[in-house]
Amino acid sequence: TQTLHVLARVAPLGDRLVLALVEDRTHEIRVDEIRRDFVANVSHELKTPVGAMMLLAEAVQDASDEPDAVRRFAERMQQEGQRLSRLVQEIIDLSRLQYDDPVDSPEPVEIDDVVVAAIDRSRVDAEDRNIRLTAGGTEGLQVLGNEKQLVVAIGNLIENAVSYSPEGRRVAVGVRRREDLVEISVTDQGHGIAETDLDRIFERFYRVDPARSRETGGTGLGLSIVKHIAASHGGEVSVWSVQGAGSTFTLRLPLLPYRPGQQARGVSQV
Ligand code: ADP
Predict the structure, then answer these.
(1) Distances (CA, A) of 27 to 8, 32, 84
(2) pTM for this one?
(3) Which of 268, 240, 239, 261 is nearest to 174 (CA)?
(4) So what's the pLDDT on residue 264?
(5) Which of 75, 96, 135, 213 is the most buried (most CB within 10 A)?
């Protein structure tokens, strides 16, 4: 529905009519609603780790003569603290992205560099969980944009692929040229996502399984950040998934003109 704000009305003037001046406020009101929802969600999300930390602090006080229990509670406080700091960082990233549309002063970015840096962010987690991370595809492709943001976007997809896969599986990052686009795909052999959830996972704070997301330190903001970064680069992100078999997330971005010397390389362990 449209919300029109009347600035001036139609009025008869002799045998003529004066035209009303009307302003369409639909967009403004929608933005306001989204902002209000966001603030409500943020407050709720911040209260969870803060509440847990308060309870744990009480537990530490009560267990002061049991060193093992104190150590356990302190570890959990540290985990909650890390979650809180990640949440705050992601909220800041997301609000910056929302005001930074499209990317300020874009520069040529090498996709190879983005993939290497993004994989680096998950290397330790993948090793801990015995997950094999591989990368391959067309080398030497470039896009116009912000390298840091693109590392965050691909990095978030890889982090999710690792987090939502059972131990010992494989996560593959592929780069392909499709006419004037580059497709960067992240494929896992993980839990997969039900069809009914596929449309919703890009929403802020939406998690299919909140308990599992919390366990992996997830904030529910990762994919909405990816979606924003894709859009601000003139691209898009999509997902294909089969429950129980795995998922492929694909980021498509407009390519800078093709340079000689680009060639396909085989899949390699990185
Ligand atoms: P989170 O911080 O919870 O991972 P995201 O926005 O990154 O938040 O993802 C939203 C939800 O989508 C996750 O909680 C998870 O349920 C689901 N999801 C994302 N990536 C994957 C994946 N590769 N495999 C299975 N489920 C996924």
Answers:
(1) 20, 9, 32
(2) 0.81
(3) 268
(4) 45
(5) 135
Residues 94-103: contacts with CB within 8 Å, 24+ apart? 94/204, 94/221, 94/224, 94/225, 94/228, 97/149, 97/225, 97/228, 97/229, 97/232, 98/228, 100/232, 101/228, 101/231, 101/232, 102/232, 102/233, 102/234, 103/145, 103/146, 103/149, 103/232, 103/233
| Identity of the amino acid at 41 | N
Mutate to test the pocket of ligand 1, among 89, 199, 223, 243 (most ligand atoms within 8 A of CB): 223
ipTM for this model: 0.98
Q: Which atom from ligand 1 is nearest to the alpha carbon of 165?
A: 24
What are the pLDDT digits (tens) for 81-118?
998 998 998 888 888 787 666 677 889 999 999 999 99
Residue of 154, 196, 204, 207 to mutate, ligand 1, most atoms within 8 A of C-beta: 207
**Would you say residue 219 has pLDDT above 90?**
no
**How do residues 186-208 score in pLDDT, each as one tens digit?**
999 999 999 999 989 999 888 88
Question: Could you tell me if 172 and 138 are in contact, meaning their C-beta atoms sit under 8 angstroms apart?
Answer: no
